Amino acid sequence: MFRPMYINRNPLERRYGDHHLHFITCSCHRRLPLLGSPTNRDIFLQALNDARTKYSFLLVGYVVMPEHVHLLVSEPETGTPSTIMQVLKQRVSRAAGVQDDTAFWQRRFYDFNVWSRKKIFEKLHYMHMNPVKRGLVDDPGLWGWSSYRHYQFGEAGTCTPDREPS
Q1: What φ, ψ does residue 143 adopt, rounded to 5°?
Q2: Is residue 64 a contact partner of residue 71, using CB atoms and an 8 Å limit?
C-alpha cells in the first residue's frame, strides 16, 4: 500500500521563551529597495527605537539595508519577537506613506536563535559588513544605519544598542 510522504515545505519554526537572542532578517516586498532612501532608513530606526521602549527588549545590533534589515534582539518583556516585527512593519510602512504593510514588507521574516557568545559576534560581524559586501560603502563605519559605529567608536545615535554582547 502506498502511503504519501508529507514534507514540511515551510520549515520556519520560531522558538521563544528560552531567553536567547534572536537574529532577525526581514525583507522589503519583492526585495525592492524600499529602504533605499536615507529618510526611510531613518524612519525604520526611529520605529525600532520606539518599539524597544514600548516592548522592553534589548537591541544588541542592527543594520538597515536598502531592501532588508537585520536585527539582533532579546525577547521582549511584552509579546514575542513576532510582535516586535509586526509593529515595526506597520509603523514603518505607514510612516513611509504605504497603508498596506504587504506592499512594503515580505509577509514572513527569518528568525535564528543565538545562544552563544561566538554566534553573537558572528552575527554582529555579518550585519556590520553587509553594506561593504554589497558595495554600498568601502568601510562599515561609513554606513550610518548600523550599530557598527557604536561598537567601534562608542557613538550614540537614533538607535544606540543597549549593551555590548556578553
Answers
A1: -90, 115
A2: no
Helix then strand then coil, in percent of the chain rounded to 5, is 40, 15, 45
Q: Contact 87/26 with Cβ under 8 angstroms?
A: no
Could you tell me the end-to-end alpha-carbon distance of the chain, in angstroms, rounded to an integer? 56
Residue 6 has pLDDT above 80, yes or no: no
Task: Report how far residue 13's alpha carbon sits from residue 153's, in angstroms, rounded to the nearest whole number.
Answer: 36
d(CA 164, CA 162): 7
In the predicted structure, residue 23 carries a pLDDT above the cut 90: yes
* Helix-helix angle 38-55:81-95, to 10 degrees: 140
pTM score above 0.85: yes
Whether the predicted pLDDT of 161 surpasses 80: yes
Which domains are delineated in the chain?
21-151 (3.30.70.1290)
Q: In what order do the strands lie in the sheet with 59-64?
A: 59-64, 68-73, 21-27, 110-114
Separation CA 31–CA 79 (nearest Å): 27
- Please, are residues 105 and 89 in contact by the beta-carbon 8 Å criterion? yes
Confidence of residue 2 (pLDDT cuts 50, 70, 90): very low
